[in-house]
Amino acid sequence: MKINTLDCDAQALREKILDLAMRGKLVPQDPDDEPASELLEKIKAEKKQLIKEKKIKKTKPLAPITDKEKPFDIPDSWEWVKFGDIVSFSLGKTPRRGNKKYWENGTIPWVSISDIKDKRLLNKTKEEITNNKSSIRR
């Protein structure tokens, strides 16, 4: 079977662009941009408020990321964090597929195992859901 070299070159280019973007090297960094530390503090405060309102459960703190876990260098204004530090997730409460109110016009990313391709990177999900808690299986 003959492989189209143009397709291979295009795929390699896409991968290189994604790699550069993830490392913060695709465009110059704007020193006026809000540093990641400020955004992380806002996320932390919002999670604390959601816990207080009993909308999410309190979780155990995660260990800090070690230098060994960092796959590459990032700009100084960025920060490495663990997924669980910035999101709230739970297992076993899949919304009923038959309930269209939950699955149509969703805005909340719905992460499934099939969304995690290389066990390291999650940059998008196939589906999004709405905030209709009445259709979650109990």
UniProtKB/TrEMBL annotation:
InterPro entries xref list: Restrct_endonuc_typeI_TRD, Restrct_endonuc_typeI_TRD_sf, Type-I_RE_S_subunit
GO molecular function: DNA binding; endonuclease activity; hydrolase activity
Nuclease as UniProt keyword: yes
Keyword entries, A-Z: DNA-binding, Endonuclease, Hydrolase, Nuclease, Restriction system
Signal peptide as annotated in the record: none
Lineage top rank: taxon: Bacteria
Record-annotated Type I restriction modification DNA specificity domain positions: 75-135
EC assignment: 3.1.21.-
A Pfam family this chain is assigned to: Methylase_S
Coiled coil: none
EC top class, as a word: hydrolase
GO biological process, one term: DNA restriction-modification system
Complex formation: The methyltransferase is composed of M and S polypeptides.
Entry similarity comment: Belongs to the type-I restriction system S methylase family.
Full protein name: Restriction endonuclease subunit S
Source organism of this protein record: Lactobacillus paragasseri
